[in-house]
Design brief:
The chain is an alpha/beta fold and 270 residues long. It has helices at 12-23, 39-47, 73-80, 99-105, 138-149, 162-170, 172-189, 194-215, 219-226, 232-240, 249-269, and strands at 5-8, 32-35, 51-52, 63-66, 89-92, 111-116, 126-131, 152-157.
Length: 270
Amino acid sequence: MQPRLVIVGFGNVGQALVRGAIASGIAAPSEIGAIDSEAQRLAEAREMGLRIVDARAIADAELVVLAVKPQNFAAVAQSIGAIAAGGPLVISVMAGMRSGSIRAALGGGARIVRTMPNTPAAVGRGITAIASDAAVAEPDILRAEQLFASVGRTVRVPEAHFDAVTAVSGSGPAFLFRFLEAWTYAAEEIGLPPETARTLARETLVGAAALLDQTREEPEVLRAKVTSKGGTTAAGMLRLDDPAARAGGLDALMVEVLRSARDRGAELGR
């Protein structure tokens, strides 16, 4: 029996999708095949009960997820070969790679749905953008949504916006983690012991995120509730948004960060 779902690239995203697919009943472990060049990842797939397959299993699958690095896709596409229009639905999670380019590399006939998940999918809290204007039928987009809904929320976005999506939500967790690193460092610099600094900064971030999620209030509303006029929060906020400290303040810095990530996605696509 050939696997119904084949994951090409069993890294963090591939593993998260497999766990979600199994937990939600989309596919049993024995119905999922894994393809990867690294022995350790294949060993992890075996431990999860998956089948280790090669590119020949793709033709008879229902879904194929391309979860490889975009710079490795050319070699992967060559090993896969052509996929017919009546073959499996191909779902890409590769940053920068346009659906048209993926289709062309796979022989020109494959049905492609482009997606952009992020790493919180590993704990069931991902957000995945799904191309709403791909040249595929609605049932295929719905199948992609069903798969990614097993690891979080989904949103439909025109593919023309995908480089921006990659910057905001795909790369976004890393920016938050970097901010937490800086927050912890600053806490140590004003006199807290390292372990105390890490605990206070981390739990404040986690707690604030939970508050944002559970209250469903906008961030500017929650910020205002914490910021008393003339108080300690207001003093710190003035410095955070001080244009003299950085041109344009924090908002301008964030625009620069996201623009750099977006433009790199466009470069990868070329």
